[in-house]
Amino acid sequence: MWLIVGIVSFCLLPWYVLEDGFWSFEWLFDGYPFDTDYAPAAFLIAQGEKLWLAPLPFFLLLPLLSRVLNHSAKQRSNVLIMAGVAGIAWLAMQGLGIGLRGWNFEALSQLFGPLDDRQFGMGFGALFLFATFLFFLTTGIAGRGAVNGDVFVVGAIGLIIAMVTVFIFFPIVQMLSSALRDNDGVYSLGIFAEKFFENKIWGLGCLQGGTRCGVAWNSLFLAVLVGFLTTVLGLVFALVATRSGLKRGNFLRAMTVLPIITPPFVIGLAIILLFGLSGSVTRFVADILDLQPTRWVYGLPGILIAQLLSFTPIAFLVMIGVVEGVSPSMEEAAQTLRASRWQTFKTVTLPLMRPGLANAFLLGFIESMADFGNPLVLGGNYDVLSTEIFFAIVGAQNDQGMAAVLAIALLIFTLSAFYAQRRWLGKKSYTTKTGKGDSGVHVMMPKRVLLPCYLVAGIWTLFTATVYGMILYGGFVETWGLNNTLTFKHYITAFGVGFNDFGIHFKGSAWDSFFTTLKIAATAAPLTAMLGLLTAWLLVRQNFAGKNAFEFGTMLSFAIPGTVIGVSYILAFNVPPIELTGTGVILIISFIFRNMPVGVRAGIASMSQLDKSLDEASLTLGANTWKTFTRIILPLMRPAILAALVFSFVRAMTAISAVIFLVSAEYNMATSYIIGRVENNDYGIAIAYSSVLIVVMLTVVALMQFIVNRSGKGSRLAQSRTNW
Amino acid sequence: MTIQQARSKAASVEFKNVTKMYGKSVTAVDDVSLHVHAGELVTLLGPSGCGKTTTLRMIAGLEMATGGNIIIGDTDVTKLPATDRDVSMVFQSYALFPHMSVMDNVAYGLRINKLKKDEVIERANRGLELVGLTGYGDRLPSELSGGQQQRVAVARALVLEPQVLLFDEPLSNLDAKLRRQVREDIRDIQTSLGLTVVYVTHDQEEALAVSDRIIVMNNATIAQIGTPRELYDAPKDEFVADFIGEANLLDGRIESIENGMATVLIDQIRFELPTTDHSAGAIRVAIRPGRIQIVAANTPNTMAGEILKATYAGSHMEYKVATPAGELFVVSDVESDFSDGQAVGVGFATKGPVLLTA
Fold first, then answer.
1. Cβ–Cβ below 8 Å for B87 and A614
2. A359 and A425 in contact (C-beta within 8 Å)?
3. Which residues of B touch A623 (CB under 8 A)?
4. Mean of pLDDT values over A387-416
5. ipTM score of the complex?
């Protein structure tokens, strides 16, 4: 079957990427199949062009040869593996070796002499040929008996490994190598070391009373602070929600939806409205105390407040799982041993929660490190890594090497935190759930813990309410702080709808990016969910060599900050063999791989609740793995699928960090449009647009909750987040 | 599914030196050879972790053997995955698909195997009829009781008319009364359809009641194969003697062997037992609690004993007796009347003691 796909892609589909896009089909009439820009590989070779593609058909036909020669099944498998490996290797080599300007490496041109030909990015022909070789390889491996000879499972594993390699590892490696190069393209460790250990990154000036510390220290300090404070706040909220006898638990849980639907910089905007130079609070205080309003909020305090507001709900989600996970019978046991409430809390409850606390801390740490929107809006002179990366690329310096170096520094921090979380906490869990329902009731908290908790939770809730109120209100105000008249002006500028000869005319300036965002998010969501659930299924249900590495690889992209993904994508996919920058595809791909871990987590959570014997029953009844997957697993996972869908949709709409590097004039996203307005100090439109986004996503999430609840199964959304 | 058809499809199962390793160090099944005849119900019995479930799953094709050969009928299926084997399985958890009706569950295998529509319906209905659930087709599994779910699982496995039908502890989720009922039903269906059935359980009473033959497993190997009566009356070693029913284990001595009969001495008691592979010297002897007789003290060919504890258990009396050969557990009828501290004589019923291999 794949042989036919391979031959078709080689002989009929255009080999290179098409300027006008494949689906315009313009290429069919414009010199196809002989024009070298449009021709399939077979015609290229026949015309004596691009001769380096010539070995490919040989690899393609190898399996056929083996069938003709009547090889044994084992020999055939070996031939398939050989053909697959050789085909993929050759594709990769020619793709990487020969670029826009002939040979890509000095050594090659010395070896083979100069090449006065060039090639563009690979197109559909190459894509399908690659898939063919990949499935040759996996079918061959399955034929040799891996995973009980299951072609579908091996194929799926191969597919995911290939995708993760191309879209996560390849860009990261590209970025590393560009960090090692100086501006002339010469590799040198010295340059890297020089850039990496520059004062700007690691300087300790502030400690000696000097001017400023390096960005890395800034980021680290901020992340530790945020991690610690969000953990404390999260714990406070979790205790109030579960142990106070307060009936408002549901309200607090609803609050946890907020960070999911809020674009990351919106909190930053609201902080400016409150505490900025012309912010309400600043003015009010200045008027009363007769002080000169200052820009104090820009910098560490502002970022800190914004990130606390953004990430506390996440810590809350983690902590509520932990707090509920402490079995009531343990506490009851302590009480029957004559411990008072306070003693129980101090000696039993709190120690049992310790790993959960560490987990929440690391999550807060990673989120803060990766956060891009808030520092961008509120950073002032307090530079952090994620924004510095951005400025290194877009600023006047346009120093890709520098950006790569900064990205590596950032990556080192987040990856170590991620690694610590998985290695250290993964093994050491005090989750006391036994599988049997504990009938006990959670012990009420002692007063001396409860009162401060109420206080903190109350203040924080009030603050959050103010902030969100501000966002909604801010969109209707003429110019914040200067002219407080109410107006629809911003909404009209952004979302004006008019009528002309052709019917409805979306003349508002924001419509373009709004529709693009919807389109791209809607495309990315199903793909993300599919890939995530497939991966989850492989992880939970199948056993194969290297499964741990496989899991680590797929979860890795969660620990890679969006800015790093953004930088590495433009470094990797700006030139052949894979040329994607400026297209919508690169946005979709970046969303898929940024959000895939969410799908995987949701899938794993819901799949572990499906008894494995269901699969096995289906297998013994004669269904193969593919039928089992589609007929048994997928229907039973409907809630998880829905959750993954909505979640990846919403995340795609609110993402900013990777997006801002990848947008183009044609494909502008809502978030980067808003950031653009903010940079022009056009707060009105930015805030109006943000509230529209929030309302849209709130609707989507509410709709999902409604559907999921109606199908009678609890939402896995919350759980999937806590499992990070 | 006429009875004749099903009988003709039933096939034998053979293991030739089958080994299953998990990773490099854990041996779940170690060099096991066994033969299940067509139309026979064989139980795999053993404590948890003995490898019985792994053996069952290797027959199903859900685990692949690391070494050796598995033959079903005349075909070597060692490398065949579950999908391609003509074997059905009833799971401990029943594994009914919760999103499908009872009818769809039963028809699932038939549909997957691309049978004609009316044949699917007909055979599924007959399957439900066989387990006594006609008319329940439209319900969801969650709307049935545990026993009914169990029967749906049996029907689902039966309608495919498999060469071999496997049961993985099918009764463990049922309450005690239902257990007896269901196990008789399973046995009835098996004998009337002439099915080859391999059945896993850790409950020795269940195994004794239901099987043609029992394979006792321990530590990844087969401890003994035999009919229920053989296993109960003539256990080969301490493990089997102790695992199937209760047994008192005593130290004795073979004084001489003549014409396949060994003369054995335990304390004061001398008796003869048939033997094949023992030699004179120290020997372990097993004796069931019901085969020990308590009589008046100083009766000939008994040993001296003292009642440590007498317990009235309704249908019988239980005694703990101290003897020179060790402490014995004895069951006797309610008529017997010995009290704590009483001095008695202890003797063995003929055919009572069994010689064990080291």
1. no
2. yes
3. 83, 108-109, 112
4. 78
5. 0.77
